[in-house]
Every structure is written in C-alpha cells, then in structure tokens.
Design goal:
About 30% of the residues lie in helices and about 25% in strands. α1 runs parallel beside α7, α1 packs parallel to α10 and α4 packs across α10. It is an alpha/beta fold. Strands 4, 6, 7, 8, 14, 15, 16, 17 and 18 form a nine-stranded mixed beta sheet that branches. Strands 1, 2, 10, 11, 12, 13, 19 and 20 form an eight-stranded mixed beta sheet that branches. A three-stranded antiparallel beta sheet has the order 3-9-5. The chain has ten helices and 20 strands. A hairpin with a 6-residue loop joins β19 and β20. It binds flavin-adenine dinucleotide.
Length: about 425
Amino acid sequence: MRDCAKERFRPEPMSQSAQPIDIAVVGAGIIGICAAAQLAEAGQPVVVFDRTGICEETSSGNAAAFAFSDVLPLAHKGMMRQLPKWLMDPLGPLSIPPVYLPQLLPWLIRFWRAGTFGDYHAAVEAQASFMRLAESEWLSLMDRSGTRTMLREDGSLELYESDSEFKTSLPGWAERDRFGIAYEHVSGAQLAELQPGLSKQFVKGTFVPGWNTVSDPKDLGKAIWRYAESKGARFEQARVEAIEKGPSRQSERTVRVRLSEGRTVEARNVIVAAGAWSHLLAKQLGDSIPLETERGYNTTLPASAFDVRRQIIFGGHGFVVTPLATGLRVGGAVELGGLKRPPNFARSKAMLEKAKRFLPGLDPSGGREWMGYRPSLPDSLPVIGQARNAANVFYAFGHGHLGLTQAAATGRLIRDLVLGHTPALDLKPFDLRRF
Ligand SMILES: Cc1cc2nc3c(=O)[nH]c(=O)nc-3n(C[C@H](O)[C@H](O)[C@H](O)COP(=O)(O)OP(=O)(O)OC[C@H]3O[C@@H](n4cnc5c(N)ncnc54)[C@H](O)[C@@H]3O)c2cc1C
C-alpha cells in the first residue's frame, strides 16, 4: 500500500509576495481527513499539515465503532455512580494519576456539573441529531469514496453480569426509544447464539443492530485520504507551532500559520482539527477551551485469537472487544492523565487478562499494545464552529469517545461553514461560547 504520508508538498518560505493558501487543515486524524475530503470534493484547494502522518495517532488504533446509538452524555451514563468503585482499582476502567489531579480539577468540576445540573434532555437531543447526520454522512462518504466494503454491519452486544446491572441500564435504553434507536435485550440461547463461548457469568445482553464497526480505522482513514488526494487535497508533514491573525491583503484578512523549521504560510482559512492538542492552538487566538484527554489503551491480537462475531461491550468493566480485518482488538478504559505522561501498558494487560476470563478460550498471545488520546470536553460534545476572534479559523475537535463515528458529519459541517452555507445542523450546542 502506498504510504500517503510520504506525499510531499513543501510550502515556500514566506515572503511578501508568497500567495496565501486557501484552506489549511491542522491535523490529519480522522476529523481533519474527513474535512479535507469534503472540502476537496467541493473544489476547494486544501493543504493538510500534520507532525506525524495521515491517521497515525489516536485515529489509527481506536475500537473501530460507528456508535450511532451512543447518544447519552458520558457524565450521565452511570459513570458518576460507578466512579468510587472504579477509582478504587488502579488498573480499573477509570483512573486519575494523583499528581495530575490538581491540573485536572477544573475539568472534573465541569464534568460533574454537566452530569448534575446540565440540561440532560438538551444534551441527548443535540447528540442524537448529530448522530443522525453522522450515519447519513458516513454512508454517503463511504459510497462516494468507494470504502463501503470496509463497513461491518453486524451490530454490537453489550453484556451484563447480573440482573441488577441489567436493570440499571434500562433507563438509558428507554431514553434511546425517543430517537427510534433499535435494540433487543437477550439472554439464554439467544445470547449464546449472538456470541458463542462467553463465560457463564454474563446473564443478559443487549443487541444493537445499528451499531457498526469498520474493518480497521487506520486503513479507513488512509483510504479516505487517498480519495481526498484524488480530489486535489495535499499533505505536508510539519508541526504547526502557532496560528496568528495575519496581515490584511486587499479586502481579505489571512491567518499566519507558523510551521516547524521556521517556515510560515499564510492561509485564507484554517481548520484546527488537532485532536487532544487543539486547545493549545485555540489559546493562541484567545479561545480558552477546557479540552482534556481521556487516554485509552488496547491490545490487538492476531485475528485467530477468538471467534468474536461482532463488537462485544463489557460496559461494567469499561472495555470492548472488536473483530477487525487486521486482528482482534481488546481495550478501552479511561485514564485522565494529560498529554505528557508515558503510557502505562499495565492497563492494556489488565483488560486482556479480564477478556481471557470473559471469553475462556481466548488466546492472549502475540498482541500489540497501543495508547491513544481521546480529545474530550466535559459535556461530551465537540466544538465545531468559528473561533471567537478570527472568522476564518474553524474549530473541529473534542469528539472524545466518538471521533470516528462523527468524523464524516464534522467534515460536512466544516465544509458548510467554510463555504458560507447554512450548516446541516444547528451548531449552537457545539459552539465554544458554551464554556
Ligand atoms: C482506546 C480508544 C478507543 C476508541 N474507540 C472509538 C470508537 O470505537 N469509535 C469512535 O467513534 N471513536 C473512538 N475513539 C475516539 C476516537 O479515536 C477519537 O475521538 C478520534 O480519533 C479523534 O480524532 P481527531 O482527528 O480529532 O484526533 P487525532 O486522531 O488525535 O488526530 C489529530 C492529529 O493532529 C496532529 N497534531 C496535533 N497537534 C499538531 C500540531 N501542533 N501540528 C501538527 N499536527 C498536529 C496529530 O499528529 C494527529 O495526527 C476511541 C479512542 C480511544 C483512545
């Protein structure tokens, strides 16, 4: 396979006469790639800048789900109730390194407030509308880009270890009824048929047919990028050091993008899609956005490790098992540990150990461990919209657990904004001014 990241476009060092580029996208994760693809389709010249490559970071190793039915904000999803139990276990589903706690505290307070005082119905409504767009935009983009064969339409299976755990989940499922999300509670032979070989400790499950997965998120990202390139998008490997309001040129005001190695380009429009690092760039333009990272871990085993029929969700343990074309991925968990600490792969190992108990017969050998940085805002909604002080800078980040699911819709909304069209969705819930 051609390495898309090797495609080189070298912007000229800036001089007074250098022409501005039309659209600079910062970040070649799945969000930046989908935005670039949709802008290029609309005939817009786009250059994507990334310090590593195309879909090489968090978007490369996630759990591969198009989780269109996942409409409940995290702070409401029973997480607050589980917090004390989870925090007691240093390798459990949620952890906070004690030294990071002081820095994290303002975000945690916002998270708690979103779960306690936030308008629950408005939050679910906003996420559900976004998910409807997410589904239609992905199916359409996959058709246009010839990637539909990468979609696995076999649903997911969430599992419960006791009747009381199952009963606790029921209000959340009832909430989904309001949006016509299909699901079926199963047990006994039906459960065993949906996933043979499960440990007997799982007494009930919920099958969600509209929750799909992709064959491999990195392969999908690279394929969408090849499509974007075929429509004229270009890639430049460079770290974006700074974004500044640039000089006015005749009637337009450009943005100055400072790159590594002292290079600079001017752009008519900039899209910040730099995942968990986006707030650092937004801050330079005067926007203070409470973005944190929920670090997540997994291990990808050889595909032969176990015959997993569809994504299995161990909700009470905070991890999933996904069958990919490239292996069997076991992982999840949340570590609120910031951007600088080294990974603690004891977390991947702990989840693999549990998976072995839950799926007796699973071969845990030959795995590849990985950690990624979910870019997370306290109310579980991303920021999509214009910067406060620069009308030609657009933000597209903070998708948390749902960035793969919502990437095509985000790309569509960014295209609408850049082209000055009415956005396909009311963007008020996603406006940065909510913070
Ligand atoms: C364990 C785990 C499982 C997950 N499972 C799912 C799932 O099943 N379904 C789902 O929808 N989501 C899932 N997610 C979430 C999803 O992976 C993220 O929301 C998504 O990848 C974020 O995409 P992004 O493009 O915003 O960020 P990234 O993929 O992080 O991309 C940002 C890019 O910006 C670049 N960058 C940053 N700063 C700069 C700079 N200054 N200059 C140049 N480049 C820069 C980085 O190099 C990076 O390539 C999961 C996440 C984790 C960790």
